[in-house]
């Protein structure tokens, strides 16, 4: 979870590449607001952005210049173009929060207003084709303050239990229950802000019920379960030490539904 960017954030969006063309409208509008007619954000304007938008009241011109230098700022005009600005939001401006250093940001806005430190294939010990799946990389990620853990869930060979693995590859599976228990034990070792478990679901309905039971029994009162449809998400502050689940219908289910619809 990283510092607030005041309506310039994502929730449950997996961002692997950060090309300028993919920058959301909010980012582009902010860049336009703080850049000149040639499409360059100067040291002075980046400094203003840090103070006015990021609320970094102690930010200096030297801080702004260092950010520009880190992201390939235009050497002649000494500033950032859109792609450099977009990239710096994920590193220099919004690094993962370290509770040990103290939290001085406003953490009471809806969760969707924040960048979230997100893992991908969090269970893999190595490459995506032949490595082992394990709870150890998950534990290590949580200890680094990662707040979103991704689990790909599949039926085991007997179709009576659930495993975590990178599907249709040679990766060796790990039991889902082992991963869930490790998440519970280590979820808040580095940060008390909420942990989101994203499930890439490839299960039959009966195994989905089994997963729901596993999750409920494992996390108990730690599990965030809204009593009604939410118009906006709760704040990180109100979700301290809570676990949230993000999932969607299996691709296999959606594909079979699409085929039926064409008949």
Automatic annotation (TrEMBL):
EC nos: 3.1.4.11
Protein's UniProt keywords contain Repeat: no
Keyword set, alphabetical order: Hydrolase, Lipid degradation, Lipid metabolism
GO molecular-function terms, A-Z: phosphatidylinositol-4,5-bisphosphate phospholipase C activity
GO biological process: intracellular signal transduction; lipid catabolic process
Subcellular location, record wording: Cell membrane
Catalytic activity: a 1,2-diacyl-sn-glycero-3-phospho-(1D-myo-inositol-4,5-bisphosphate) + H2O = 1D-myo-inositol 1,4,5-trisphosphate + a 1,2-diacyl-sn-glycerol + H(+)
Residues covered by region (Disordered): 229-263
UniProt-listed Pfam families: EF-hand_like (PF09279), PI-PLC-X (PF00388)
PROSITE patterns attached to this UniProt entry: PIPLC_X_DOMAIN (PS50007)
Domain Phosphatidylinositol-specific phospholipase C X: 105-248
Protein topology in the membrane: Peripheral membrane protein
GO CC aspect terms: plasma membrane
Catalytic EC class: hydrolase
Start-end of Basic and acidic residues biased regions: 249-263
The protein, known as: Phosphoinositide phospholipase C
């Amino acid at each position: 979870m990283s510092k607030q960017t005041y309506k310039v954030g994502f929730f449950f969006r997996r961002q692997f590449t950060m090309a300028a063309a993919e920058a959301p409208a909010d980012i582009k509008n902010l860049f336009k607001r703080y850049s000149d007619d040639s499409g360059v954000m100067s040291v002075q304007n980046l400094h203003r952005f840090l103070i006015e938008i990021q609320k970094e009241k102690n930010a200096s011109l030297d801080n702004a210049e260092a950010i520009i230098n880190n992201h390939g700022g235009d050497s002649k005009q000494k500033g950032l173009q859109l792609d450099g600005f977009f990239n710096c939001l994920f590193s220099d401006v919004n690094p993962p929060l370290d509770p040990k250093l103290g939290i001085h940001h406003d953490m009471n806005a809806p969760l969707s207003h924040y960048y979230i430190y997100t893992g991908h294939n969090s269970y893999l010990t190595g490459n995506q084709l032949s490595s082992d799946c394990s709870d150890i990389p998950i534990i290590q990620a949580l200890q680094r303050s990662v707040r979103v853990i991704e689990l790909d869930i599949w039926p085991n060979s007997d179709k009576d239990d659930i495993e975590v693995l990178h599907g249709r590859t040679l990766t060796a599976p790990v039991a889902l229950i082992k991963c869930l228990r490790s998440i519970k034990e280590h979820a808040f070792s580095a940060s008390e802000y909420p942990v989101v478990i994203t499930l890439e679901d490839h299960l039959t309905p009966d195994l989905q019920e089994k997963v729901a039971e596993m999750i409920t029994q494992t996390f108990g009162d730690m599990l965030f379960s809204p009593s009604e449809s939410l118009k906006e998400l709760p704040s990180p502050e109100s979700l301290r030490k809570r676990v949230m689940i993000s999932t969607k219908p299996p691709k296999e289910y959606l594909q079979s539904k699409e085929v039926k619809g064409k008949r």
